[in-house]
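Reading group handout, session on sequence-to-structure problems. Before we discuss, look at one worked example. The prompt was deliberately terse, the way you'd type it at a terminal:

> structure Adenylyl-sulfate kinase

The input record follows.
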Amino acid sequence: MTIPETETETEETHVTTGATVWLTGLPSAGKTTIAYELAGRLRAAGHLVEVLDGDEIREFISAGLGFSREDRHTNVQRIGFVAELLARNGVKALVPVIAPYADSREAVRKRHEENGTSYVEVHVATPVEVCSERDVKGLYARQAAGELTGLTGVDDPYEEPEAPDLRIASQHQTVQESAASVYALLSEKGLA
Ligand SMILES: Nc1ncnc2c1ncn2[C@@H]1O[C@H](COP(=O)(O)OS(=O)(=O)O)[C@@H](OP(=O)(O)O)[C@H]1O
Ligand SMILES: Nc1ncnc2c1ncn2[C@@H]1O[C@H](COP(=O)(O)OP(=O)(O)O)[C@@H](O)[C@H]1O
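And the output record:
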């Protein structure tokens, strides 16, 4: 069978080194913004990219789950499963998801290791004071007003990664600088 020329060209121009890049951090830390900025840069360089946005995942794959420790763990394992599938098949799976518990994140890392799939952990380490000022979705204000409990980093735990591949102090950087630092890390690791 003759492969149409256009398909051949498409295959040749795509970078197919897959990896999961997990951006963990507090609400409003900058996870989603950095993920989409990085996605644009990677796509421009020919990478296959998917962003597994926490809000979208909770609407579909994790519909019905809340924010208890158990539900957050289940949510993170489901996302980790999908990310690993994508990464194993040549996609850069960018995951801007809080993932507040170290054991949940470790289980995802282990699953990647078992499958020989690259996994990169980025801690978007914006301090809670800055996050609550940004308050992109108004969650910090709602918590302060007593309309919401169990907000990560305020009255619910966030276990900081002890040894992430990269820690980003987004309060001292532009979005472009933060995304560039993740891109540079991927380059160092031979993934970009
Ligand atoms: N109680 C509480 N704590 C933390 N976050 C909350 C809560 N209620 C709603 N939200 C919003 O839910 C968004 C998705 O959360 P995640 O799936 O990333 O959380 S988790 O990893 O399962 O803990 C998360 O998105 P981001 O703000 O982008 O981090 C929050 O905006
Ligand atoms: N260096 C930076 N990296 C990421 N976001 C930043 C940075 N500096 C300022 N911001 C701002 O912080 C906010 C982060 O929101 P968002 O990405 O939705 O956070 P999260 O996904 O962690 O909840 C955005 O308004 C973004 O423009």
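Points for discussion. First: The chain has one domain: 16-188. Second: The longest strand covers residues 19-24.
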